[in-house]
Amino acid sequence: MALDVLPVTARDYFRSGAWGESTLAENIAAWGRLRLWHRVMRDVSARTTECTLLDGPSAMPVGIAPTALHRMAHPDGELATARAAAAADVPMIVSSLSTTTIEDIRAAARSVRPGARTWMQMYVGRDRAAVRELAQRAHAAGCEALVLTVDTPVWGIRERDVRNGFRVPEGLRIVHLERPGGPTGHAGSGIHEALAWTIDASLTWADFEWLRDSTPLPVVLKGICRPDDAAQGVSLGARGVIVSNHGGRQLDGAPPTCESLPYVAEAVAGRASVMVDGGIRRGIDVVRALALGADAAFVGRPVLWGLAAGGEEGVAHVLALLRTELDVALALCGCTRPSDVTSALLRP
Ligand SMILES: Cc1cc2nc3c(=O)[nH]c(=O)nc-3n(C[C@H](O)[C@H](O)[C@H](O)COP(=O)(O)O)c2cc1C
Would you say the pTM of this structure is higher than 0.90? Predict the structure, then answer.
């Protein structure tokens, strides 16, 4: 439905991957190759999908990955997503390229559930004062964590957007990253040229330490694919890592996240939360992620499609489908709760 209602430029921006889109396709296909070696006769009559995630409760080990420009999918934009996430009692990671302020997003989430959980995604750009200010705003608005995206020293090349000459539509604003004196997205250049100042190709681990020391909030690293990077981040104080290849939008040719996940989980060894995104489309994919060592899985595009197709109700429907599927998948695997899922469920 979303593909039908969205104009081609928006549809392609949301669905595109980098270059030949091989990582984008593999993200989905590789989960499908994992076989669940299910147990039987285990009394699964009393079940829950509830879990603890980054020191807080969640209705299921699933959250909303940060994606840009929700008002391009639906006029209610991030407010609709935040309300649906709060109602479903799952964490939402707000993109720093959102079209609604973090204060308004938090107010929408809290209006549905006072304990709604929101994490703020950040890029560390060249203007460190602006980064610090956004971190402070996120903290003041009641966000529980910062999610530092680390797979973006430069923007990946998404050929659909190049061909379409993608720009942020007139009337939409990337509210957190506007520079005094100029709009961001709809200047004469494409979105990535306009947003070039918001990322920084010179980033190193020292910049992670700087962010860590600039905020009282826990910091999660997003965009990790190697065990050595994960180990380094955790040793420097990352409270969690999200195994991600940015939904195939950065380095085409990067491994699908389900192939990186077990290496990262082994390196982290319980010292921090391990999360994963990329190609999670069904409840069985969540079980597969848990079996490979993740504490939770996050969804990007499915939420955008729900939002485009039906606003808040559409996002709520996507989350409800995932929860029902996860519940049934747990039962069929002989598990009564997410923590029952171990690597023993994967066929040797
Ligand atoms: C349209 C779109 C916009 C995105 N914007 C951001 C962003 O602003 N910050 C970020 O860290 N990741 C961003 N991502 C990556 C997602 O957080 C996530 O890694 C990815 O979408 C997960 O894969 P999936 O879409 O297959 O579920 C974006 C992804 C998409 C599809």
Answer: yes
